[in-house]
Predict the 3D structure of the following.
Amino acid sequence: MPFAVRMKKQPIVAPKGTFDILPQDFPYWDRLEEAIKKVAASYGFKRIETPIIEHTDLFVRGVGNFTDIVGKEMYSFKTKGDDELSLRPEGTAPVIRAYIQNGMDNMPRPVKLFYVGPMFRHENPQAGRFREFHQFGIEAIGSSNPVLDAQAIKMFFSLMEELKLKNKFFVKVNSIGDRTCRPKYISALKSYYKSQQGKLCPDCRKKIATNPLRIFDCKNEKCTRVSLQAPNILDYLCDECNAHFKQVLDYLDELGVTYLLDTKLARGLDYYTKTVFEFYPEANSAEGGKTNALGGGGRYDYLVELLGGKPVPALGMAIGLERIIGLMKQEKVKLAMPKEERVFLIQLGDMARKKSLGIFEELRKNKIMVEEAFSKDSIKAQLKTAAKNGANIALILGQKEAIDDNIIVRDMQSGIQETIPLHKLLGELKKRFKEQAA
Ligand SMILES: [Zn+2]
Ligand SMILES: [Zn+2]
């Protein structure tokens, strides 16, 4: 056997941590996006999409150099034009960049925006975690009113309701203070951890100076034990932060949201102030007890200013869509089927095929969902495809019908068919749909 034949080429697979969304999955994605648009609109949010690539500096400045996201997980590269760019690892900094760049700070406040799209982080792939993943996020810019914090949290629950998920959910909430009170807390935290540093893992020891709040997230048992005795943020909040947080909780009670106060919740991004929160499913069967948040968010009252805009308070949240899709599949949620009747156009012979192209366009223009298999010749194969696609009505155009300007209308369920003049087709279809809908 010649060498070239023996050497089989290895197929190329998608990069680690990425996946294809296949045709059979799209009904779930479509359903989710439809629900997102509905819920976001009902809370007054308007859609925005920003580029997938941004200047690396946007994330270094916005998210923070010492965070895992920027320090370890970004896909950064230098372009041929010597620009330092990164695939966006999160959506908030880009949206704020767009808000400033497009003069949206002159719009009535708060400016409420939402986005849906892919994000990229070079993490270790695990259940429900990917290197390319999708997020739905909202940003409400220009108000410090705690009612916005509560509403952003409520929106997550409204989305889950809209999807009719049976699983119950809850939110962990905390306040991490502001410029006035947070520095005092951080220094208390630093001196506490310094006094305990012999008991911390090497990774956490490094975080004492740079990002002590992140020590809370360490899964190491020794570190967890040390963190248990750490100073409590709520004891350090200034009067304003304290009052703000109390009001957020008040509104959550009012909205009937199930929340859990978690004073160790800090989130992985530097830009947060005051309220932070994370969403969790109550039943967690999918990952065998391992809990990853479904999403979260918080207030970021200094980010707009930090990125060069007029200083205004703001708040946002984001939800990972892969895990929501997972829950939808697990619960076999009802995917709204298109209400339109499905028509399948069958053609036989060259003349009929040519004529069918025009009929297809005519029906489509009149908003009738029509499918076809123009590439197939036999009537048997086409009828089979029509049945497989769930068509209610098949239209059959043969040589004779094409010459006589007629068409056969076949009820796919009963098999009953009649020949009608072509110019009456649109009226006939509309009449049949009305009868079926009644
Ligand atoms: Zn540790
Ligand atoms: Zn404060």
DSSP finds 16 helices and 16 strands in the chain. The domain at 343-433 is CATH 3.40.50.800 (Rossmann fold). The radius of gyration is 28 Å.
